[in-house]
Amino acid sequence: MHAPRLKPQPKLSLALVSPLESERARSLFAMARLRRQLTEEQVAQRSGITAEQVHWLEEGRVYAFRSPEDALAAATLLVSGLAIDNHEARELAGLPVLPRPIQRNPRGRLAVAGVLVLITVVAAMLLAFALQGKTGDVLRNEKHVSLPAPWRVKVDVLNGSGDIEYTRRVASRIAALGYTVSNVRKADRFDHTHSTVFYTSAKNGKAIGERLADELGVELLPLPRGANPLRLVYIVGPKSLAEK
């Protein structure tokens, strides 16, 4: 089976990101892989997806896929490749763990049930991103109707607080709103106290930036330079109290 098609992604400098990832969070996929003492490459070969896609799924980088549907397809293949049964799937998903069934229950049914549980968890996550995007569309002010479609706007998402995991979640949310996330990296410093959308001074630049700022409920400021109205920079500050 072919791996899901992906949109091209810019190569980020590992020197900028790796210091923040020295203690990589163990996602449910990563825990399942490590239990089996497999490398990302070995799991990718078993699942029929790329090692890079395995890495994205383990770190929750939904925005790296071309669409939520591609992310869900890759997650389905990964669950199948890991051969997770119902007992392990519930444990990884944080659900109450049921006693392991007696041997008379077919092993195949357990595997299928495990796949369904884990896929349900992943699907719920992707659905949340999609609903955020639809909600943003419904609540947009009429003044935004004549602006270019969000997918035409490229957004650089910068980590301004030192929390790379939160920055990635914000990037996924922006992608769910329909924007093209062109870059995810660290900002010039980690002491930004507020999340801010920066826009260029070109025609409609402020209105385009204001649309994203309204959707995310953050501040809006002009960039010191830049002439492309279809480019925005979003510096991610610390999480608000409501998000913690």
Architecture overview:
By secondary structure, the chain is an alpha/beta fold. The protein folds into two domains: 15-139, no CATH class; 143-236, Alpha-Beta Plaits (2-Layer Sandwich), CATH 3.30.70.2390. The chain is built from nine helices and five strands; from the N terminus they run αααααααβαββαββ. It has helices spanning 14-17, 28-35, 40-47, 51-58, 68-82, 86-92, 107-139, 164-176, 205-216, and strands at residues 154-159, 180-186, 196-199, 219-222, 231-236. The chain has a five-stranded mixed beta sheet with strand order 2-1-5-3-4, covered by helices on one side. α3 crosses α4 and α7 (107-139) packs across α8 (164-176).
**Which sequence of SSEs, written as H and E, runs from N to C?**
HHHHHHHEHEEHEE
Count of runs of 4 or more consecutive helical residues = 9
Rounded mean pLDDT is 75
List how many beta strands DSSP finds: 5
Strand content: 5-15%
Shape: elongated
Q: Numbering strands along the chain, what is their spatial order in the largest sheet? A: 2-1-5-3-4
Layout: helices, strands, pairs:
Elements: H1 14-17, H2 28-35, H3 40-47, H4 51-58, H5 68-82, H6 86-92, H7 107-139, E1 154-159, H8 164-176, E2 180-186, E3 196-199, H9 205-216, E4 219-222, E5 231-236
Parallel strand pairs: 1-2, 1-5, 3-4
Antiparallel strand pairs: 3-5
Entry keywords:
244 residues; alpha/beta; Alpha-Beta Plaits; 2 domains; 9 helices; 44% helix; elongated
Task: Give a brief description.
The protein has 244 residues and is α/β, with parallel strands linked by helices. It has helices spanning 14-17, 28-35, 40-47, 51-58, 68-82, 86-92, 107-139, 164-176, 205-216; strands at residues 154-159, 180-186, 196-199, 219-222, 231-236.
